Amino acid sequence: MYKEITLDLTRKQERDALSKPIQISGGALNSTKHKIYVHDENYKKIMKAKKNNTGCRIQFSPGEIMKTATAHNMAGSGFFDDVWNGIKSAGKWLKDTGIATNIADALVPVASTVIGPTAANLARKVVQSTVGVGIKKTTVKKGSQEAKDKMAKLRAMRKTKLAGGSFKIN
User: Fold this and answer.
1) What is the pLDDT of residue 103?
2) I want to staple 120 with a disulfide (CB 3.0 to 4.6 A). Which of 4, 83, 111, 153 is the partner?
3) What CA–CA distance (Å, rounded) separates 22 from 43?
4) Which helix (H) or strand (E) holds 103?
5) CB of 46 within 8 A of CB of 19?
6) Which pLDDT belongs to residue 106?
7) If the chain, 170 residues long, is cut into consecutive pieces of 10 residues, what is the mean pLDDT of each piece?
8) At a CB cut-off of 8 Å and minimum separation 6, what does 43 contact?
9) Residue 122 and residue 116: Cα distance in Å, rounded?
10) Angstrom distance (rounded) from CA 133 to CA 115
11) Domain locations along the chain
């Protein structure tokens, strides 16, 4: 009765599909982002457009929308997917900016009073090794002696001849 297809729909197309026809581009037809269930008539129309690498205009029926929603158990799509993606992007931002490192460092003394200093430090090391939070990036100040030494080492490495497996690079 319903056939499964994969499309790449924008958020606006997902909203509009509930009430009116939507235009789907040829590139969106060749994506594997969303699994959607459609009737034979819409399936034929989509497959013809996909074969010709052109777009098509589709009106999804309420039955197709309900079948798709039921098949996905309404999990991991729509509102809850947006919430989870927001949490992940906030966590990435905290990690990339270094704020998560400062928070993790500040929590060690607090955790020491609850679980003891040894356990708190051990927990801190576990967090560092698993997610990378707490590993501060060191940058060399431009113009410092350390930076000059680093560049001298890099230049020296470029001047030496590198030996490969059974041949020599000149």
Assistant:
1) 77
2) 111
3) 15
4) helix 99-115
5) no
6) 80
7) 86 83 88 84 91 90 80 56 65 72 78 84 74 64 90 84 58
8) 3, 5
9) 10
10) 20
11) 3-77, 82-158
Amino acid at 67: K
20-43: buried (b, 16+ CB within 10 Å) or exposed (e) per residue? eebebbeebbeeeebebbbbeebb
Spatial separation of the C-alpha atoms in residues 91 and 96, rounded to whole Å: 9
Residue pair 55/26 in contact by the 8 Å Cβ criterion: yes
- Rounded Cα distance between 10 and 66, Å, is 19
DSSP 8-state class, residue 126: H
Q: What is the DSSP string of 26-92?
A: HHHHT--SEEEEE-HHHHHHHHHHHHHT--EEE---HHHHHHHHHHTTT-SSTHHHHHHHHHHHHHH
**Amino acid letter for position 66:** M
What pLDDT, on the 0 to 100 scale, is given for residue 45? Answer: 92
